[in-house]
Queue: 3 jobs
Job 1
Amino acid sequence: MRRVDQNMARSAAGLLPQVEGEHAKELRTRFRHLPVQLHSSGLASTYVFLASRAASASSPHLRRAYTEVAQRIRTHLAEGHLIDAELGTAPAPGVHRAMLEALAGMDSVSYARATREIAVLFSWLRRLADAVYPPDRGIS
């Protein structure tokens, strides 16, 4: 049996696209802030942020990255039976309203569990983004 953090590390590694320059800088910045955003704003608000960025990011690479993180959240919560299984595989953007309704309908224990598990994913995304998208040391 694999631990949640091992599965999340594997998932996070698969969510980091090959990008360079400003796109890498933006992803590193956003992925580094996801744990803080989750803690301060909550899971529903953070999910909406990701869905919004998936629709409006400046490049296809960034849109895909945000889309895949939102999809991974839905898939993980569906696999853990915290949301309806259909939401785990439903395509965006139509799924976002249903996802928010599912999050809003959770009891407090389920919402706390979902938040904690997604926090592990975000923690891995932050660590891996720092490793994969190193800052440009030449810029002050």
Job 2
Amino acid sequence: MDPIAVTVAAHRAALLAAVPALAAARWFPVDGVDTAADLRRALVGWSATEGLQRASAEPPVLPGQHDRVAVAADPGDWSERLDRQARSCAQRIRQHLALELANIHLRAVQEIVFGVGCAGLPDLLDREMAALSLLATAQCDRAVRGIVADSTAQVLGTPPTEGVRRRIATAVQYGLADHRTGRDLDRVLLVTSTAGVAGLTGVEAIDALAGYPTATRDEVLPPIAVALSGGCWQQWRTPGNDDHSAARAWSQRALREVELELSREISRRFEVIRLSLGVVLSDAIDHGILLA
């Protein structure tokens, strides 16, 4: 008997022993272009059918998604607590990002002096800005979830179910644009060749950055995005432009501008969360039930 066939049979038997449900599945021997094409066609057909079935399926109903939710008899000083929590979260994230930017500056200087030199500066900073953006986004998302959950629990008198949490988060998200500070949150901060920071607004601007899958986000705020403009590559990769002192000074100014812009961005985001969530919860208290 063919040794390869024996090996395949042994592997199949072991797999079926671990997952008996696979006995009814189709099996495709892949040993060449023709058999690989058969598998590809089968996968395409399966994905098309599966996609239609999932699209037509009713989404699961979350606990509390459609229930009447009453507020607590005495929600206490929920508004003052919300103010304190929003300010505290913004301050903590700003401080953390300032420390990260200081470390990025040290790595930039090391790259200039001991690494590739000025030509390696754009690559390093672009990677660092992408990582910083993801960090800032994750910290803001986590803090906002905590603020929404804590304030809601105080007003309702009980921790919100997942359905209630999503109702409130959606209402807060819709209410962001009602406040001047909540407009143009879909914004990319671009480091320019003059060591400044320019802003590009719109979902398309963020979607242009591969690291931000906004279509799959289930958060109140859009992501924070910082990147380098094309002029930075042109400036520091120009042949002969290898002035280490100028590159160090440029990186220091640029990162300082990023710190200032991020600090302002973080502050306004938590301010508008405070305002929008405050409106949602105030309406609930005034009417005795959650209106979201």
Job 3
Amino acid sequence: MKFWKEHTGLRALFIAGFFFAGLALVIYGWTLTGQMKGLGLMILGVILLLAALMVYNKPFEGDKGPGL
């Protein structure tokens, strides 16, 4: 997508925000051992980490790999 290739600073801000928020939620949820709230926070943290990966890969999704 052309938008994410042109706005690299905004993309880096989103990636960093999703990454650190997701990591904090996973770690905090891990401390709530035996509680359903902790599991929910860890799942939400993993979703945010996957969102960071999605934003990172967005500019490259139109490119074809060699031999694919």
